[in-house]
UniProtKB/TrEMBL annotation:
GO terms for molecular function: nucleic acid binding. It holds the Pfam family DDE_3. This is Tc1-like transposase DDE domain-containing protein. Residues 49-160 form the Tc1-like transposase DDE domain. It comes from Hemibagrus guttatus.
Amino acid sequence: MALCEKVFAPLLKHNLTVVYHTSVSHYVWRESNTAFQKKNIIPTVKYGGGSVMVWGCFAASGPGRLAVINGTMNSAVYQKILKENVRPSVCDLKLKRTWVLQQDNDPKHTSKSTSEWLKKNKMKTLEWPSQSPDLNPIEMLWHDLKKVVHARKPSNVAELQQFCKDEWAKIPPQCCNRLIASYGKRLIAVVAAKGGPTSY
């Protein structure tokens, strides 16, 4: 259990999909002849739907940073996300030097270049099984985030991204602490199910 309290748990490449409500009118104050400048345009998605890919992390002391991923995810992009978000999150959450990075076995996480990058940057990782959704404590946070973002009814990609960041920042530290504290029960349930699905 002591180890679980030190686990820093990121989530990679998760898509949030919502149905946009395109009947909502938006008004923009602008100067003459600037209608098509980027700052005066609100992006919309045809056919009433869209998604964003985000990376997030948390520890027992609360949520860390949430990053929106643009374009294709590969090892280089993953390393850039880690570089820009892990250490700042560790500082924000006031974690001690004994923190451990938890990631799954996605090829981008275990590639030679990522392994070398993690070693060079002295980031210790937690050994992790290949198929383990019931073991990842961040899945509950992800479920809750989808629910609250959907309830806010974003009407375009920009709003969806902003709502994700807003709601992630609102996650109470007590919620994160409960997820880490219940990790022992999660492990027992997975062992009892012989690696099969559990209620988590």
